[in-house]
Design goal:
The complex is a heterodimer of chains A (147) and B (155).
Chain A (H helix, E strand, L loop, with lengths): L2 H25 L3 E3 L8 H4 L2 E2 L2 E2 L7 E7 L6 H14 L3 E7 L4 H6 L7 E5 L5 E6 L4 H9 L4
Parallel strand pairs in A: 4-5
Antiparallel strand pairs in A: 1-7, 2-3, 4-6, 6-7
Chain B lengths: L13 H21 L5 H21 L5 H10 L13 H22 L3 H21 L3 H11 L7
Helix pairs in contact in B: 1-2, 1-3, 1-5, 2-4, 2-5, 4-5
Classes of the chains: A alpha+beta (147), B mainly alpha (155).
């Protein structure tokens, strides 16, 4: 194989990997609207916050984040939601580790973590954020819920 | 909060990415060598070294890996403190996946299947490159999926 062909293949491989990376980066962490979403059962998902079971949804919006133990980006996503929760009233963030809750992973068809479900005040799913939520995505979602 | 229970001590998230840069360059050289039958032996030897490196990271974690020690000694002192520390388990999981993919390529190479060796080295390159350049986290993307189809069992 001539050296030019080899260099061409190697450059093509790097270019392809870069294109895949750019597409992934652009798509991850964005929200997808869900119409006619189901109601979340807090008891079923076993939501715990500060050591207490969660029994009520946020008055304005709830961010239900599914995490796993092999997830490097779950922590930073959780941090974004914590900050939002502290500065915005009526916003609730719940984090559920689905590492050993495959029933939930199957039910909500979760392939990647973090996956965040956005819930209205009744606990109905209105959107879904796959991957580490972008700050602007979170702001957009928040803006779509008025008090 | 239901944070992942008993998470081990955190590591600097830039450490594993530094290692991924080295690994992706080595894998790219492997692919280059694998393209020519004249250098197929060199590709095999290099992939053997890379597979051994993945085995080290998969068993000891990325912080105790030579690349991790190199990072700690020469790179980290030049950087600002990280915003937050990271769980060491996701990068370790990525090393396990790297070990399996590179290992399959190595086995194919042992049977003189240089095309197979080169294809698997390319696949490992994609994952290492995406991690190094885009902070792509293999554990975030495939771990739950693998558990759902039963490849990984519950402990």
């Amino acid at each position: 194989m001539p050296i030019e062909t080899k260099i061409f293949i190697i450059a093509g491989l790097v270019a392809l990997a870069a294109i895949i990376g750019l597409i992934w980066k652009a798509r991850t962490g964005k929200s997808k609207r869900i119409s006619g979403g189901e109601l979340i059962d807090l008891a079923e998902i076993g939501a715990i916050k500060n050591g207490q079971p969660v029994t009520k949804f946020g008055e304005r919006v709830t961010f239900l984040q599914f995490s796993s133990e092999m997830c490097a980006q779950c922590k930073q996503t959780a941090r974004l939601f914590h900050e939002l929760e502290e500065h915005t009233p009526d916003v609730l963030h719940i984090e559920v580790d689905i590492t050993n809750r495959l029933d939930l992973a199957n039910k909500f068809n979760i392939l990647q973590t973090p996956t965040t479900l956005v819930l209205d005040h009744n606990g109905r799913i209105t959107s879904r954020i796959g991957g580490a939520a972008k700050p602007e995505t979170i702001q957009d979602e928040l803006g779509s819920f008025h008090i | 909060m239901s944070e992942s229970n008993s998470a081990p001590k955190g590591i600097d998230p830039r450490g594993p990415r530094f290692g991924a840069v080295i690994t992706s360059v080595l894998l790219l050289i492997t692919v280059f060598l694998g393209l020519d039958p004249a250098t197929a032996d060199a590709a095999f030897i290099l992939l053997a070294v890379i597979t051994a490196s993945f085995a080290w990271g998969a068993t000891q974690g990325t912080a105790k890996h030579p690349y991790g020690l190199l990072f700690k000694k020469f790179v980290r002192p030049r950087l600002a403190a990280p915003k937050e520390l990271e769980d060491p388990r996701p990068p370790k999981f990525a090393q396990v996946v790297g070990f399996i993919v590179a290992g399959i390529g190595l086995v194919l190479g042992a049977f003189d299947n240089t095309v197979g060796l080169t294809i698997f080295a390319s696949m490992a390159f994609f994952a290492a490159f995406l991690n190094a350049a885009f902070n792509y986290c293999l554990g975030c993307q495939i771990y739950i999926g693998l558990k759902r189809i039963g490849v990984i069992k519950n402990d």
